[in-house]
């Protein structure tokens, strides 16, 4: 079965790579196709792809994929545009994110009778962060107005890292691990360690890495066959070191990408290096989503019920879109732009990682929590995947008319 699985994945990856340019112009994005392939080839379909991925294995693949995407996307960020329009991501992260968690908690309180209050808060936190990889069609398309594109990219890069300490505080309280430190001290400890150490690691890894890259290029030491390695290695190093010392690897990967992009802004190889790193991220993304479709979806469908489905729909619409619409009031954005930003809060890799963390906990409502996250991700993959290209075309034409 090992070689059969490998052959199927290799054949699918080869075929998709040959058709990727054409696929980018259709309504379905890569995550939809990867997940559907996993479902069709997995136990729910032909049963040819028999993956026995354990929780730690799936978590590691999802984490590395997310770290790669965060580093590469943030390295491409236009800091000049972001500086001029910092109020969009600032409001999304500082005001809208907490509002989304509170609204998600309220919806869980109304719908789920079998969850404790802390478990409801955990569910809301698990589904609050957006996914940079699943929203790649939006944040990487230059036809999308730059303030919206950079704002969404910056939001998705930081909100999962911000949610990590919140999730761990809630888990510690739910499992009775707060000890004598109290809730406030526990929260301060997690926030300081996760965010502070993440930023510190990013600076200590990305800045010397960018300097060494320049030195190597100037001395003619760079080999063409190794150009795909530096950015990938820096992204993984930022993530892994931060995780190893108790920081947020996601914060480290995103901030590391920002610093690397800033220090190599005018480097002649920057574009080529980032393109190759994106290729590595896309490959990891393919494996993650195929595994998700073949393993997670197949094990989760039997647990779905109407309350889980309703919460998932609310999470992708009202719970996300209402806070975003309210906090963007007063900015120079039309109703269409506000709804566009609110809608493109897809759930994916970060929520998969959070679901695996919670699944390994001792919470009584663990199955309801993880199934709700899985349902939300499935709907997000479908709805956001189908709507990405047409809505990007719509917002681009709207911006073009405004310029004319």
What is the CATH class designation? Mainly Alpha
Calculate the terminal CA-CA distance, rounded to whole Å. Answer: 59 Å
Work out the count of structural domains: 1
The average pLDDT value, as a whole number, equals: 85
Q: What are the secondary-structure elements, in order, as H or E? A: HHHHHHHHHHHHHHHHH
Number of strands: 0
**CATH architecture name:** Up-down Bundle
The Cα radius of gyration reads 21 Å
Unreliable runs: none
Beta-strand level of the residues, as a percent range?
A: under 5%
**Shape category:** globular
Assign the structural class, choosing from mainly alpha, mainly beta, alpha/beta, alpha+beta, or little secondary structure: mainly alpha
Number of helices: 17
| Helix coverage percent | over 70%
Biggest beta sheet summary: none
The third-level CATH topology is: Na+/H+ antiporter like fold
Pfam family, one: Na_H_Exchanger
Transmembrane segments: 30-49, 92-112, 195-213, 233-262, 308-328, 340-359, 371-396
Subcellular location: Cell membrane
GO molecular function, one term: antiporter activity
